[in-house]
Write a structure and sequence with these properties.
Layout: E1 3-7, H1 16-31, E2 35-38, H2 44-55, E3 60-65, H3 66-70, E4 80-84, H4 87-97, E5 101-103, H5 108-123, E6 130-133, H6 140-151, H7 157-160, E7 163-166, H8 169-177
Parallel strand pairs: 1-2, 1-5, 2-3, 3-4, 5-6, 6-7
Bound molecules: adenosine monophosphate.
Adenosine monophosphate (AMP) binds next to helix 5.
Length: 192
């Protein structure tokens, strides 16, 4: 692995544990000599993780749509800021550049990015590990929902495993090193 894509809030959140976790994630990337791919903003948890990685001397690539760059939230100290035409182009570029995906606490944008990258893993569009850093129980509700959807027969147990959940950034990255993509197709012949 060379680079990890981190999805996280463009807001800092109320609990200081969220900012601490963004810093800890950045430090875990630095400790493993991994670069960061992220949404390119200087604000919220996005800014915190980018600052940590840049200050530590590692590669930090931001991928930002022109419309958001114009609103002057783009981080100016990155090793590379790639300006793209649309949100769709941005998400594709982030997936292409990274070798794994992590969601930290965040809002609608973070949730959407996480679910899309999990869906793409389920369909075999990419074969890269995906995980969630469950800071202060922030993702307990999502974990319950995924477990419920699995019990209800909408998510297969193999695909439920696509979302690795850890509370420690290093444990998440260690799990990524040994990740094996599922061999099970999204829809088996017996389901059709
Ligand atoms: P949210 O969780 O709603 O704050 O959205 C954060 C996620 O959406 C990040 O992972 C970004 O990729 C993207 N995003 C949302 N707002 C911005 C912004 N102002 N600048 C860059 N990316 C953003």
């Amino acid at each position: 692995m060379d680079r990890i894509c981190v999805y996280c809030g463009s807001s800092p959140g109320h609990d200081p544990a969220y900012r601490r976790a963004a810093r800890a994630m950045g430090e875990a990337l630095l400790a493993r000599d991994l670069g960061l791919v992220y949404g390119g903003a200087s604000v919220g948890l996005m800014g915190t993780i980018a600052d940590t990685v840049v200050e530590g001397g590692s590669e930090a690539i931001g991928v930002i749509p022109a419309a958001l760059e114009d609103r002057e939230v783009a981080h100016e100290g990155l090793t590379d800021l790639q300006v793209v035409g649309s949100m769709h182009e941005r998400k594709q570029r982030m997936v292409d550049l990274a070798d794994g995906f992590v969601a930290l606490p965040g809002g609608l944008g973070t949730l959407e990015e996480l679910l899309e990258v999990l869906t793409w893993a389920q369909l075999g569009i990419h074969e890269k590990p995906c995980g969630v850093l469950n800071v202060a129980g922030f993702y307990d509700g999502l974990v319950d929902h995924l477990d419920g959807a699995t019990e209800a027969g909408f998510v297969s147990p193999a695909h439920r495993e696509l979302a690795r959940v850890e509370t420690d950034p290093g444990a998440l990255l260690d799990a990524f090193e040994t990740y094996e993509p599922p061999t099970e197709p999204k829809v088996g012949p017996e389901d059709t």
